[in-house]
Amino acid sequence: MKPVVIFRHFSCEGPGYFSEFLDEQEIPWCLIKVDERDAIPTLIDAYSGMVLMGGPMSVNDDLPWIAPVLDLIRQAVDADVPVLGHCLGAQLMSKALGAEVTKNAIKEIGWGEVKVSQNNTAQHWFGELESFNAFHWHGETFSLPTGAKHLLASPFCENQAYAIGKHLALQCHIEMTADMVSEWCIVGADEIASALDSPAVQQPEVIQQTLPLHCFFLNKVANQVYTQWIKGLVN
Question: What's the predicted TM-score (pTM) here?
Answer without folding.
Answer: 0.97
